Q: What sequence folds into this?
């Protein structure tokens, strides 16, 4: 029999996770302290499913079944019969601790307790549990029903059987699963940092403006969205917070140093699309800036950002965060990169990537550009 799935938090992520669980045939209990959030989740789901009917992806009967599968509640005691609980509440360790302590008193001993946290360690969340061998990270990407990737993160306390069960469950929901170590940013939020950070650095040095960098990365690099368009989409407040938390969690490794430009945009309330202004102006009638379509410059921008991304991918493999296959899968399925970074490095030539990094490293003299030992080893072989 399928587990009843508990989802705690009916915000952006929790609502999406509840939808996926119900679509996969589970009974779902969705709990939020805020009644308005529950109502919003319920009406948003109805709208989403109606659109799916219009597109002939689901039938009326399926819509009814998915909706009926979710029980909305403000009482965590309703989780009592759940076999798995996925927490998706506010990103605050003290709050998560309190909540997991309460959950443990309600659920069965073998109920898996999962967190969808983006930036906290799974070990720290499990730290408040009596039976921490059932804590696990199950990290979805936004929007959860559409993005295929899920990172499964066992903590040092986690039993292998908990990890195996979580992997099987996510596969049964049709997700692409990568298992990774409990390290800051897991795979995607770690490896993707230079996509934003190096683009900001190139801008800050006056090499190119936002729109030219975006043009280069899409037109020449083949990425679906340029870094500044993407940061405006994610929100500069959110993206800056992730960068800062990864930087701190890596004991201030200069590779992850945040940018003043992004901090100032965030401080000014220029969050991006959601506030009508970010790196670009989204107000009606705003003039859309035109890029300088200089292909030599564009190639230089792409070469530099890509080399930094590839270096980060090698570092994740070198530090055993995940396998090379998992890292490539994560970046293509979690953030839609046109190719896996390790595969891309082989196509371009690892020697060429190493040359780019060594040139940057010797010119700037900054640790940020130090080539990864695994990349060096690849070149020697
Ligand atoms: N937004 C993203 O793109 C994204 C992606 C992956 C992971 N995450 C992670 O998912 C989690 C949730 O993020 P979100 O963007 O959905 O947040 P959100 O603010 O949209 O939703 C959080 C919900 O939790 C509820 N809540 C807060 N405290 C609660 C409590 N004690 N008990 C019950 N409900 C409570 C709030 O009422 C709110 O509805 C965070 O840990 C975040 O790091 C977010």
A:
């Amino acid at each position: 029999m399928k587990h009843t799935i508990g989802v705690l938090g009916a915000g952006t992520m929790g609502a999406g996770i509840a939808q996926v669980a119900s679509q996969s045939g589970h009974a779902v209990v969705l709990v939020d302290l805020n009644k308005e959030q529950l109502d919003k989740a319920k009406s948003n789901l109805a709208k989403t499913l109606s659109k799916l009917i219009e597109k002939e992806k689901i039938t009326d009967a399926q819509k009814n079944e998915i909706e009926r599968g979710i029980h909305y509640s403000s009482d965590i005691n309703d989780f009592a019969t759940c076999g798995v609980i996925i927490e998706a509440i506010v990103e605050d360790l003290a709050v998560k601790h309190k909540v997991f302590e309460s959950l443990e008193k309600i659920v069965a001993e073998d109920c898996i307790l999962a967190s969808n946290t983006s930036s906290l360690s799974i070990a720290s969340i499990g730290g408040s549990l009596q039976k921490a061998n059932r804590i696990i990270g199950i990290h979805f990407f936004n929007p959860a029903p559409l993005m295929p990737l899920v990172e499964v993160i066992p903590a040092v306390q986690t039993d292998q059987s908990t990890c195996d069960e979580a992997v099987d469950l996510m596969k049964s929901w049709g997700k692409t699963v990568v298992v990774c170590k409990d390290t800051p940013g897991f795979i995607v939020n770690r490896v993707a940092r230079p996509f934003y950070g190096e683009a900001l650095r190139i801008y800050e040095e006056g090499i190119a403006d936002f729109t030219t960098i975006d043009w280069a990365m899409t037109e020449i690099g083949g990425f679906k969205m340029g870094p500044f368009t993407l940061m405006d989409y994610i929100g500069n407040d959110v993206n800056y917070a992730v960068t800062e938390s990864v930087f701190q969690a890596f004991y201030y490794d200069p590779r992850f140093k945040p940018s003043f430009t992004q901090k100032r945009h965030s401080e000014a309330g220029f969050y991006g699309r959601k506030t009508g202004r970010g790196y670009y102006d989204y107000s009606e009638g705003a003039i859309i800036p035109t890029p300088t379509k200089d292909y030599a410059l564009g190639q230089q921008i792409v070469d530099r950002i890509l080399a930094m991304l590839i270096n980060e991918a090698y570092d994740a493999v070198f530090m055993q965060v995940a396998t090379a296959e998992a890292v490539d899968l994560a970046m293509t399925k979690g953030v839609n990169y046109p190719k896996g970074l390790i595969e891309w490095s082989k196509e371009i030539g690892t020697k060429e990537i190493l040359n780019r990094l060594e040139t940057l490293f010797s010119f700037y003299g900054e640790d940020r550009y130090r080539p990864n030992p695994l990349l060096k080893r690849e070149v020697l072989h």
Observations:
- The chain is about 50% helix and 10% strand.
- Residues 305 and 379 are 20 Å apart (CA to CA).
